[in-house]
């Protein structure tokens, strides 16, 4: 018979209490390490995602805006101060052949045949004293207009009325309102490839035949988009004309002045390539500004996001470029008549002086006007002549990461931002504090977001005489 001791000794042994406690301790330490590693990785991932969004938004915004700024004043190979423009109607030399007709009663009248075919603040009023029955020519200053805006939303000069076709939203702290401290910029240029042409005759008896470029059986120019009533722009490197047309396919019959002796057909031999553009459909105005939109994130009820907007030709639905642009500031490199070069704000350029509180009575800081302008026209149409002398534009944008990164420490979200020392962003006291510019609240909260300033400098198509 087997003894009890022998049977008991054959049983398997278990873990002792000490062994269990050691195992639990090691498991706990391992779990703590895994949780800590996961938390650190998650925090790093959130920060990296926010940084990537911040970088990509800033990069794209600058690329998109720079593409437009490089086109400022573009008219094929001309600058906006080009010489040699020929009048296409009454009123003497016009630049670029479009203007505002002044009725016999002295009241300005903007019509499709006389004004820019776009939006962005083109004035419908001629200066006081401009002769009735003539055209008030739109000067080179019409191709560029900036607006310096303060924390309360007021801009110098005043932005176009929101109710007009070229209007900009009124400033405010609600969805759809213009962000109060963001500057506004309007530029104009002629886009498209245009078409080579031949012409026969002169004046209203002339006929223009468009000759689109064909390579390997494929047209490489833009599709012809003329309809009767559209204005054609004929331009070379030395000047141009604008005139209304009757269109039939690739054939254009001018309804007003055309001087083919001044602008030779495109297939002639020479040092330039004159081309025809559709002035009404391919001449555009682009306006940049900031606007609030409601945050769609359900975790952020009532939160507003500042968005960079791009409005083209008075569109009722401007393009949303990027979100999270808190500040937008423009400064302008201007060459004074004495040869000095200075960077000015929009209000200083608009006043023709770097001391806008006491602007000069005459545009003594401006370079001489284009040669085709006589003194009376120059004094009438260029009261803000320094806009014609802008040779470069500097863009400053302050972007945030759009979404809050709650793992960030407060020290990671504080910053100072200023361009002209007039609107200084001071470090926020807490994530729930109001955003303050020069001590003025904009009604929104700082939050816990990463921020970065993006700066770009673009040369403007210009020349001084």
Please outline what is shown here.
The protein has 465 residues and is of the alpha+beta class. Helices cover 16% and strands 28% of the residues. Strands 5-4-6-15-16-17 form a 6-stranded antiparallel sheet. The protein has a 6-stranded antiparallel sheet with strand order 7-8-13-12-11-14.
**What structural class should be given to the helix and strand makeup?**
alpha+beta
- What is the strand tally? 23
Radius of gyration: 32 Å
Strand proportion: 25-35%
Q: Runs with pLDDT <50, length 5+?
A: 110-114
Note the topology.
Layout: H1 4-9, H2 17-70, E1 99-102, E2 108-109, E3 135-137, E4 144-149, E5 155-156, E6 184-190, E7 197-200, E8 207-210, E9 214-215, E10 218-219, E11 231-236, E12 239-248, E13 251-254, E14 275-278, H3 279-282, E15 283-294, E16 304-312, E17 319-323, E18 325-335, E19 341-344, H4 346-350, H5 375-381, E20 390-400, E21 434-437, E22 440-445, E23 451-459
Antiparallel strand pairs: 1-2, 1-3, 4-5, 4-6, 6-15, 7-8, 8-13, 9-10, 11-12, 11-14, 12-13, 15-16, 16-17, 18-19, 18-20, 20-23, 21-22
List keywords for this structure.
about 475 residues; alpha+beta; six-stranded antiparallel beta sheet; 5 helices; 23 strands; about 15% helix
